[in-house]
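Margin note: ligand = flavin-adenine dinucleotide.
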Amino acid sequence: MKTSPASQQSGDTSAVNDYLDLDSLLSRDELDARELVRGFCDKRLRDVVPNWFEHGLPEQDARDLMLEFGKLGVLGMHLEGYGCPGLGAVSYGLACTELEAIDSGLRSMVSVQGSLAMSAIRKFGSEEQKQTWLPRMAAGEVLGCFGLTEPDSGSDPGSMRAVARRDRSDWVLNGTKMWITNGSIADIAVVWARTDDGVRGFLVPAGTPGLTAPHMRGKLSMRASITSELILDNVRLPASAQLPGARGLRGPLSCLGEARFGIVFGVLGAAREALRTAVDYAATRTQFGKPIGGFQLTQQKLVEMLLELQKATLLALHLGRLKESGRLRPEQLSVGKLNNVRAALEVCRTARTVLGANGIMQEYPVMRHMANLESVLTYEGTVEVHTLVIGQALTGQNAFR
Ligand code: FAD
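Resulting structure:
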């Protein structure tokens, strides 16, 4: 028997969405911000994303979409000034949940623009850099990317090889960055490189001689998101291209913290979609003479998924409130990143089993979310890295080396 594809359903409120009435912890403004993004996602994105995942996201579609995201107000949503909406951390988190309920790749595009590229310029840029780039980035007219990872430098960014050397007042950059979200469509790349004075950040406009951004092909995850290399071959930049406020690795790492926060909320959306799909499927799929949702073993799976989703939601909200009050510490954020991505992935894997063979089909969003979450588990700090961060906070011992 064939059930109706859950991918066609809209994101209405239901027991799956909010079993514990956690919406009561949100303000009217936060609920309104969420509704706006949810409505856009359901109308504009829900039906087109499976095609983007299957065939890859065309660059022009990505550019068009970023303009629409700009109008929606989700680019640099939590940043203040320079044309940014300046909403609270929880509102931004809720927007991430709705975007990721459609696809982690879309939340990634928004995260990289707002939490990585824009936040680097907002935190560390000169007044002129902020004025030049941020308003157009908030509008989605200018796209940014964030180049930290390299072929031989992932979890350990301190081992990066990209180098920026002085040539009179200019800088000359050489190196290769890898896994760069939005790289080939970016108008401006935030690139981190080693200098005689430690790691520094640079703004590299697309089209600068020596910069190329080839697509990375063959991904089985995050297919509705563009991932590229950034190759810097004697890229010459004026002194004004350097981000004056960023010194050492603390610069890029503080931006990663912003992006991690979006993930803590974002993955709740993927988990919610998987759970909803499984609940719907279990209600209509009949085996041994009754709906599989009537078997205790299926109910146990659904209940475990619900518990994980609700606990993860509470954790995200708590971290959001800490962030809004300026008290969120990096090692606390690690708890959210580690727990919530792991929980969401487990929810998707379990949902996949509830759907049986149908669980592997594109017709249902479960396997796509599961495949995407494998990337989310790795980027912005792997499971192991966040475990070591929390372990260090607990014991005072650094076990990274
Ligand atoms: P490695 O660091 O090589 O790790 C491999 C394994 O070794 C992991 O399990 C890791 O946890 C483990 N390991 C490493 N060190 C230790 C240790 N001390 N103790 C125990 N275990 C350890 N980067 C950017 O700069 N910009 C982007 O926009 C961007 N977008 C991305 C998009 C996607 C889809 C993906 C998949 C990645 C993206 N990344 C981006 C890169 C991402 O941040 C890195 O993949 C991540 O930092 C991990 O690095 P790595 O893949 O090189 O793994």
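The first helix runs from residue 15 to 18.
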